[in-house]
Amino acid sequence: MKQRIIKIAVFLIALVGLNVLASFVFFRWDLTEEKRYSISDATKRLLQNLDGQVVVKVYLTGDFPAGFERLERAIQETLESFSDYAGANIAYRFIEPNDPKLQEELTQKGLIPTNLFANEDGKRTERLVFPGAMLVYEGKEYPVQLLKGNQSASPEERLNQSYEGVEFELASAIRRLTLKEHKRIGILVGHTKVPPPRFSDLLATLQQNYDLYFDVQNPDSWEKGDLLIIPKPDLPFTEDEKYRLDQFVMRGGKLVLFADGARVDSVSLEGTFAQPSALNLDDLLFKYGCRINQNLIKDLSCALLPLNVGNMGDKPQIKPMPWRFFPLINNFGKHPIVRNLDAVYTRFASSIDTVDAPGIVKTPLLLTSQYTKLLKAPALVAYNEARQQPDPREYNAGVKNVALLLEGSFSSLYNNRLLPKDPRMSSFVGKGKPAKILVVSDGDMLINDIDYARDVPFPLGYDRLSGKTFANKDFVLYAIDYLMDSEGLITARNKQVTLRPLDKIRLKEERTQWQLLNLLAPLVLIGLLGGVWQWIRKRKYATG
């Protein structure tokens, strides 16, 4: 009896000791195959360094179908993990937005509602849900859309993609609200003819995370930034400007180039003319490992364009027609930048080839469909072509790359080109530090449309014909996040949760027997354990 009391006392002391130890040492062990309950090191650092409380108001709660319940549960589990590392600096609550006034307020603040359809008692019902959250920090609010993913995927796959992206979306929003020091991005606007309002949506979004400066044809300012963006250049670069770009990369700078391989100008009622772009950057890109070809890609996977297909009486008949010069990119490389990305809208994109560059890793990011055809510039781009039925056999050029990521230590284009007495030799760098370059063969990907009735910009990627907003802005922002910090929050986009759907045929055929098994098996097991326990007790006291 005494030994039994001692054992119980030792057990209780050990239990109390473990609890005391747990209050000082935080430890979690994720036993899932995909580590779905773990968060990235970058997210942990962000949460542990918060200097104020972030309040997260989640509006996805209520009675939902299984897929949305799973997403709601993922949000709750992620926020629980956040609070484990941030302590009182993360507070959250779930709010069901049933009030129409609240729904209108959330819509005005930027949360996009979704119509949810269901069958209740044999009747089809519809209601508005808000799969997102509103983050509040020091009086500032920021909306986070949590239902994302590729819209061409099935509803189950898209919800799973949203599940995978919860950590990144929430952590990115927290960083945006709490960031104190901003890295610098230079915008080389001196080489484009595009008016500033056409870049306004992208610039307004970038300003939330970064300090922006504009070169206005001042190459001396290029070295002041961590990253340079060249948006749709129309004017050629001088040799001095090209040298400065080269040295910026040699010193570890990040470069983003959105440039057309062929320049398209409207000059005729029959169509437009595509002329080869002359930017004087071909040899620089070739040295770094790629080439933007002077052609246009025609893709059977394309957007629509309103065109005049004839007259109805004395009035023109305008109809949306497939415009194969506007490829819709829904084929992506394997990289966190484009993981679970929705389709990207392009206009007059060109193909990109890779060339040999020792030590440079080349990763295709945006790829066309396999049904493509190339039109070499100079050429006439005839509007009448949209009215013709294409022959798929002619679209046999295969998958083409329109966005390429280059990483590594680049070699300078100007090695062995400068004379010994050249004053630039004193600061010249021939072999660069590790750097990253993003090359996109469509300058229009950065350009937003304008709502001229209200004189405000449309979101980047918005197509006024379909009313859909494509993932152009997401692609640019994710790419810049990666270029700025490849080991930062962007790593959270690597999270992968395998979707394991039930066999619907077997489920239908074996539904009853599995229900009975789930109902009766626990009762039978408890009965067996109770019977064995009673038998052991009877045998013990009978022999005693």
UniProtKB/TrEMBL annotation:
UniProt superkingdom: Bacteria
Transmembrane domains' residue ranges: 514-536
Protein name: Gliding motility-associated ABC transporter substrate-binding protein GldG
Domain DUF7088 intervals: 33-135
Boundaries of every ABC-type uncharacterised transport system domain copy: 183-477
Keyword field: Membrane, Transmembrane, Transmembrane helix
KW Cell inner membrane (keyword) present: no
